[in-house]
Amino acid sequence: MTALTLSTAAAPGLRADAIVVGVAKGGKGPVIAPGAEAVDKAYDGKLADVLGTLGASGAEGEVTKLPAPAGFKAPIVVAVGLGALPEKDETFGAESLRRAAGVAARTLAGAKKAAFALPIEDAADAGAIGEGALLGAYSFDAYKDIGKDAKNGKAPLGEIALLGGKPRDAAYKAAVARATAVSEELNRARDLINTPPNDLNPEAFAAVAQAAAEEHGIKVQVLDEKALEEGGYGGILGVGIGSAAGPRLVKLTYTHEAASKHLAFVGKGITYDSGGISLKPAGHNETMKCDMSGAAAVLAAVVAAARLGLEVNVTGWLALAENMPSGTATRPGDVLRMYSGKTVEVLNTDAEGRLVLADALWAASAEKPDAIVDVATLTGAMMLALGNRTYGIMANDDAFRSAVHEAAEEVGEPAWPMPLPDHLKKGMESPTADIANMGERYGGGLVAGLFLREFVGEGITWAHLDIAGPAYNEGGPFGYTPKGGTGTAVRTLVRLAELTAVGDLG
Length: 506
Hints:
Leucine Aminopeptidase, subunit E, domain 1; Aminopeptidase; 2 domains; eight-stranded mixed beta sheet; EC 3.4.11.10; aminopeptidase; protease; metal-binding
């Protein structure tokens, strides 16, 4: 696990494997960013010229390595691009700092320690750099013997020292503590998403959640197949009935004695999605271990809230099942009686996420929280609409949808508000049941949101995050985002909890 510390040490005398500096893109070439003054001085004030000669421009994500000046205890300097130079009287934004720190940390995989001399104007900057570096240092190598085979990669950067930080300042210490807690829990979510489905079925996921909850003083309840049947959770049972690995519903309860508000987070946790009887076509199965990304995000967010001691009550619901075809699997045309009492005609067993979420949403609604936010890799339609780096936000309250969007943008998670057009409900009418789990082909992501809205308790504020696009990165790494599971929505949920705790949400 990568360590994060604040340091007042001078760059030349610090023992480290590398010194990281920032470089911005100026009108006439690269410009050295604040924080690297001591390094620039050691190059006789000509570090920007040297970098320019080496082809560096300061563009975002660009990395240039060069030997450290004489007298430095670190052997190399790593210059990382911050993007465009800010306008006069402006500073580098938090997301620029996060991304640059993430790129640097990823570049320095295998190193034991690196000193980051990036621009730090205040505690918030220190937190952003720390968060980006910890997320960028992430590596999933549980199934690789990197100690014996260099081809299997390098261990993550061991320690990150933030130069220019104030170790004795309460605000700086709090910023580093927050960055550490949020990043470590987000990386826990990434680990879960990346774990192969033969090792992470619903029972195994529930065990991980139980252990994390007990470690951090969170109450936990796990409903197995028998309890789900006795409780009438027809949606979760209907999805999981085709698998040899039975479904689970996990409830996580974090409470604070000073809390006056209650948030509920609900996560889709399909540990593997074959599509069921409506089998997915070839080429669409290989990454379906990521279909539990919503549940992973909810687990991480609840634990982070507990670690941060936020003055808000947070309940997490993990709807866990494996969607498999078999002789016992739910068939297209079957009718399920949901936990709410509503009946659903299943027209497509590959539209299973909304079924498990429906039961969990109704269970969450029974506790009358101030707001519910569900998170799910729900529809390919949302990817068609917004691409693979932006998630969609739907809600039954426009102001709350806007608040969620603002929180997402603040923490650096690209998102976009989407509508819930009532005319699309007609497509889900069923001659057999109260509602069908499919509707019109066009606007499929919105149809799914409308379906979920039917299972939110009356008068409860609710938002739905469809993270199908950004939850799993099949391309190369960028910024602080690795290949594979990304942990999308964790930071949005944590920020919503923080805002609720101080009364600034809605």
